[in-house]
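Thought: the user asked what Transcriptional regulatory protein TdiR looks like in 3D. I have the sequence; next I should run the structure tool and report back without guessing.
Action: structure_tool
Action Input:
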Amino acid sequence: MNSTSNARQNEGISSPQTVFIIDDNTDVRESLSFLLRSVQLNVETFSSGPEFLNSIDPRTDCCAIIDILMPTMSGTELLRELKKKKIFFPVIMLTAHADVPVAVESMRLGAYHFLQKNCLEQELIDCVQNALRFSRSVHHDCRNEIEMHKLLESLSNREKQVMDLVVEGQTSRQVAENLGIAVKTVDAHRANMMKKLNVNNVAELIHKVIMYRPDEDSSES
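Observation:
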């Protein structure tokens, strides 16, 4: 069942942002939505991945909290389906247990962050607010396509090569081996590239690159 909050947005925000919660557990959906509404965020909840996919508008300025373990469609399967449909926004993956391989797979699929269900409430709130700020910046960039292309054009050829390999999920050591350069050189190019594109981590980089170049096919493992 879908439920929508009419909570007032923070001052200074020109249009509403939404936090989507996708979890098959009713108690989890209700507790998370109560927490986020308490800090004046709009919330919509869904009990399954397919239900969410049938409702989402790709143009929505939002972020999503997705449970890893769900029947019918798992969190990583939903993330993969969103990527296939070229629907991109910050996704926070939620799990009851620490699972490093699943966390790594989620990040490679473009997840913004990975949290355990027993995390501190403030940690979750901070993560959601950071994700919404990033979503806002991406939407702003998308309305200024000329400026976006200027950012990419400001990269050197080597920085573009490093960017493409990092987005594929390669480590600095793997990038260095592929390009035949030192790891510290890769790290320097990577730092310069991320500074020019105004991103703070690999997840933000993946989102921006995909939004900038939406027609490029994403490789599936």
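Thought: the tool returned a structure. Summarizing for the user.
Final Answer: Structure for Transcriptional regulatory protein TdiR predicted. Strands lie at 3-4, 18-22, 42-46, 62-67, 91-95, 113-116. Confidence is low (pLDDT under 50) at residues 1-14, 214-221.
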